[in-house]
Amino acid sequence: MAASLLRGGHEVHGFDVNAKATERFRASGGSSGEMAQIAGALDAVVVVVLNAPQTETVLFGEGGVVAGLSSGSVVLACATVPPEFARRMEAQCAEAGVLYIDAPISGGSVKAAAGKLSVLASGAPEAFEAAAPVLEACAETVFRLGDAAGAGSAMKAVNQLLAGVHIAAMAEAMTFGMTQGISPEDFVKVIPLCAGTSWMLENRAPHIVDGDYTPRSAVDIWSKDLGIVLDIARGAKFGAPLTAAALQQFVAASGSGFGREDDAAVAKVYARNAGLTLPGDE
Amino acid sequence: MAASLLRGGHEVHGFDVNAKATERFRASGGSSGEMAQIAGALDAVVVVVLNAPQTETVLFGEGGVVAGLSSGSVVLACATVPPEFARRMEAQCAEAGVLYIDAPISGGSVKAAAGKLSVLASGAPEAFEAAAPVLEACAETVFRLGDAAGAGSAMKAVNQLLAGVHIAAMAEAMTFGMTQGISPEDFVKVIPLCAGTSWMLENRAPHIVDGDYTPRSAVDIWSKDLGIVLDIARGAKFGAPLTAAALQQFVAASGSGFGREDDAAVAKVYARNAGLTLPGDE
């Protein structure tokens, strides 16, 4: 996203706990340094971290950026977080005179690098106005879901519920088919043309056929995001049995050592439990 | 399917336990009567019933059709059945000199009426040759999955697993979203453009928005088909936790009196458990 902003002609400061990422960014023309020191010069802050605690640390922790931001600047918070947390961040930013966009992103690292993310955004109209140049540089599609923080994170949670369940369902169906003599290759040829298809199935099932678990999106992302979904659901007294079942499969994949592999590796749990050999396995 | 065959210029005999369906068929130019009496004159028999026991009754029960069929005629068996059952039917037909296509169908009653079904078919080359005029009249797409019965039913089971899980996941996600302030209307506007979409979601979610549970495909179809999938899976010592969770939701919908409603009515179970009111509800 920082690279997309650079390409969009903006002056961009990049920060990452990974020093190599910061170096790479500087080599491509960006700046870096201590957030707190340059905060006053920023029009917008884009926070792309793992979860709610990290978001809060960046904004309000020791050396947090909000304390130094000018009035009228805008924070775009992109992590998957509970809607309730997004509302609290918006309120705390408002106390500091800072605008806030609840802006979870969808599309993964490939679309992020191309400036073609989808953003499930909500926030005050003046926050959208301040954030417009950033959104224009980073996003292909901006869903504007409401005038206050929370709606963006809620829709993101809904999308992650479905996406995670669909990846696990794909793995369940493909390996079930293998027990009945359906090869992964035939599965990928036929099912995308049938009513059983999903976006995630069409995107991830080929990884299993190729035996390629290079992480486009990792198993651990789903242990995290489906966990967030279930936390939100429990708070709302909402029972989500499919989400719970899918989470257990991702947790088992993670516990089996596949946490940093592509999320299609959840199929390895099914295969091992059923004594099946996936493509590319010994 | 019988009507499609009539439109295709074939002489067609129709049989249904529902006398009204038979009458309607006769009114549109078809014939009817006792199967066993006209069996000898038939080139092909298309069996579109609920499940394996009904298929076996039609073929080999009292007054069953196979005993009267001429050598070289072909049976197309279209119900969702275990692959093992399809192989047994093929073998029993072969003993009577009758060809057999394992031919489960996909597309529902709307596509069936239009002669635009998808057929997940497997069987001997000579069986396909004999069945070609029937498939041409009834199907838009014929997936030819192998030279023996079983593969067609296996792929159908794989597709039903996914389709059933995706309908329940859609209901789970939409009602979860409602607890977070996402309206069903916004869900249907946004999610089909995101990675969380599925064919079933795009097809069924609008039924909930419209509060229209006219059965295009009924809840009870999924109690049946996911049950068949889990029977096959247990036989193969294959654990299918998402399928099992989805089945329970359809069973609860059926037990709540929604069995004959559109399968999107599985959302009513989620809504009631969470104290939500769906569109069209009092």
Helix-strand sequence of chain A: HHHEHEHEEHEHEHHHHHH
Summarize the largest interface: chains and residue counts. A-B, 69 and 69 residues
What's the number of helices of chain A? 13
Report the radius of gyration of chain A as a whole number of Å.
20 Å
Mean pLDDT of chain A: 95
Percent of sequence in beta strands of chain A = 5-15%
Write the CATH fold name of the largest domain in chain A.
Rossmann fold
Which short descriptors sum up this protein?
N-(1-d-carboxylethyl)-l-norvaline Dehydrogenase, domain 2, 6-stranded mixed beta sheet, alpha/beta, 6 strands, Rossmann fold, 282 residues, homodimer, 2 domains
Structural description of this entry:
Two copies of one chain form a homodimer. Chain A has 282 residues and is an alpha/beta fold. Chain A folds into two domains: 146 residues, 3-Layer(aba) Sandwich (Rossmann fold), CATH 3.40.50; 120 residues, N-(1-d-carboxylethyl)-l-norvaline Dehydrogenase, domain 2. In chain A, strands 1, 2, 3, 4, 5 and 6 form a six-stranded mixed beta sheet that branches. In chain A, α4 links the parallel β1 and β2. In chain A, α8 crosses α11. The two termini of chain A are 39 Å apart. The model of chain A has no long low-confidence stretch (mean pLDDT 95). Chains A and B meet through α8, α9, α10, α11 and α12 of A and α8, α9, α10, α11 and α12 of B.
